Amino acid sequence: MGSDVRIVIVGASLAGLRAAEALRGQGFDGSLTLIGDEPYEPYDRPPLSKAVLLGIMPPDHAALPFRPDLDAQWRLGVRATRLDLENNRVVLSDGATVEFDKVLISTGVRARPWSNSSEAALDGVFTIRTCDDSRRLNERLSAGPRHVLVIGAGFTGSEIASVCRERGLSVTVTERGPAPLVGALGGVVAAVAADMQRDHGVDLRTGVTVTGLDGDGNGQLCRAHLSDGTTLDVDVAIVAQGSIRNTDWLFGSGLAAGPRGVTCDAGCRAFDINGIVTDNVFVAGDVARQPHPLYDYQLLALEHWGNAIGQAEVAAHNMIHDGLRRRPHLEIPAFWSSQFGVNIKSVGIPTYSDQVVITQGSVADRRFVAAYGFRGRVTAAVAFNQGKWLDFYRGLIESAAAFPPDFDVMDRAEPFEVRASELPDPAVLSHGPTVAVTGHLPTERRVEFVSLPK
User: Fold this and answer.
1) Is the distance from CB of 260 to CB of 276 less than 8 angstroms?
2) For labeling, which of 37, 84, 148, 282 is most exposed (least CB within 10 Å)?
3) How far from chain centre, in Å, is Cα 352?
4) What is the reported pLDDT for 432?
C-alpha cells in the first residue's frame, strides 16, 4: 500500500493501539489516525477492577506502552458520531470529519448503567469501566463505607466483591442467577465460586434482584430494595450488570451493526446489512461479532483481553494485504480472573457445552481443572489455580479431541464423574465433518475438514 493511503482507527484502546502498532510493524507508511472518546492515551482495563481498587496501582500507571515510531495522529477526547461510507469519512462530536481509505472499528463496550437515571445519579452509585470510574470508586472504598452492595456476580462484580473483602469491607452481592459466574462457567463450576465467596465472608444473595435504590434526601445513597422483599442499608452500590457494545454511532451506516456488535468475517472484514462483506471496513475487539469454525460457525462476541489483541493483529494484516495473503482469526478464546485468592483461567467457550468433568486436582482445595464437552468432543476447560495446564487443553480443543478426555493423571482427587454442565443446549451442529483448527504459526492456521469415521 502506498504512502497516500489513509487508515483511520475508531477506538483508541487496547485493540485500536495494537492494530496501529501491527500496521507500522508490517511496513504501512501511510496516514494513520486514532480516534478515542476518552482524553487519555490507551490504558489497560483489567487492573481497574483489581490492583487499582486495592490501592496498589495508581490509575495512571495502567497506561499501555507503545512503539515510539507509531507516527499517528491522535484525536482524543472526541467521540465518533457517524460513519459515512458513501464519502468514506468519520464524523466527530466536535463537528470535524476524518476521511479514510480504510477504517477499523474498535469502539469496544461501555458499562451498563443502572436503569433508573435518578437513582443512578445518587452519590454512592458507581459503574466501572474507565480509569476515572476506578479512581472515583477507589477513593470511596478507601473512605471506609459501612456496607457495599455489588449488583451482579459476573467476573467484574465478583472481582469487586473480592477487593472489598480484601480491604476488610462488609459487602453484599446480589445475583439474578443461581450462582456467581453461572452465565460464563455453568452451574457445576459456578457452585464452587459461590462457596468461595461465602467462605470469604461475602453476603451472597442468589435468585434475587435489586428493585430500587433510595437516597437520604440529600442525594446520598442509603438503602436498596430487593425482589424478595428485604431491604439493605448501604452507602455504596456498584452496578456490575454487564456491558453495552458501542455501536450507536453506526446507526444508518449500512453495516450489520446492532446491540450485539458489528458482524464480520473470520478476517475481521465487516458485513453490511445485506450480509455482503466490505473491503475497506474492519472490526476488532469487544465490539466485533465473528464466526468460529470450532463453535458451529456461531457469531462470537468476546470481551477478552487476548481476543482483542488477536483480532487487532489479524485486522491490521488484512487491511494491507489481499487475496490469499489474508489471514483468518482462529485463535481459541481465553481469559483469566483473580478473585478471593484464586486465579481462574479459561480456554475455549464453556457455554458451548452440555457436559463437564473435573479432570485434575481437588475442588475442595480450589485447585482443579474442569473440562467441558459438547456432543462428544472437548470444547473448553476452566482451571482454578491450575492455569499451567491450559495449553494442553487448548490442544485438545483444536484437535476436536473426544469428550470425556481419555487420559490418566496422578493428581486427581475427585471421582471422574461426567455431569451436565447446567447450561442451555446450544444449537445442534449442522455439519457432518469435525472441524479442526490446525497449524502453529499465524500464517498456517487454516480450517481443514476431517471426515468422521462411518
Assistant:
1) no
2) 84
3) 16
4) 38
Whether this prediction's pTM lies above 0.85 is answered by yes
Which residue has 478471593 as its cell numbers?
340
What's the pLDDT tens digit per position in 238-276?
999 999 999 999 999 999 999 999 999 999 999 999 999
Q: Cα 71 vs. chain centroid, distance in angstroms?
A: 29
Nearest C-alpha neighbor of 10 from the set 107, 108, 96, 99: 107
- How far is Cα 156 from Cα 160, in angstroms, rounded to an integer? 6
pLDDT (0 to 100) of residue 3: 80
User: Is residue 453's pLDDT more than 60?
Assistant: no
Q: What is the pLDDT of residue 162?
A: 97
**C-beta of residue 328 within 8 angstroms of C-beta of residue 314:** yes
CB 153 within 8 A of CB 180: yes
Higher pLDDT, 442 or 80: 80
Grid cell in block for residue 34: 486514532
Query: How far, in Å, CA of 340 to CA of 194, rounded?
Result: 11
Percent with pLDDT over 90 in the chain: 81
Look at the alpha carbons of 421, 427, 431, 432 in this order and tell me if their dihedral is positive or negative: positive
With beta carbons less than 8 A apart as the criterion, state whether 43 and 50 touch.
Answer: no
Whose CA is closest to 173, among 191, 146, 197, 200?
A: 197
User: Which single residue is written with the C-alpha cell 475455549?
Assistant: 348
Residue 219, pLDDT score: 96
Residue 448 contacts residue 436 (beta carbons within 8 Å): yes
CA distance 73 to 71: 7
Cα distance between residue 330 and residue 397, in whole Å: 12
CA 52 to each of CA 60, 61, 140, 169, 197: distance values in angstroms, whole numbers, following the listed order: 10, 9, 12, 16, 21
Among 359, 364, 350, smallest CA distance to 195 is for: 364
Task: Give φ, ψ of 147 to 5 degrees.
Answer: -150, 135
Kind and range of the H or E element at 158? helix 155-166
382 close to 189: Cβ distance less than 8 angstroms: yes
The residues facing 220 across adjacent strands are: 123
β-pairing verdict for 334-339 and 148-151: unpaired
- Pick from 253, 291, 204: which is nearest to 88 by CA? 253
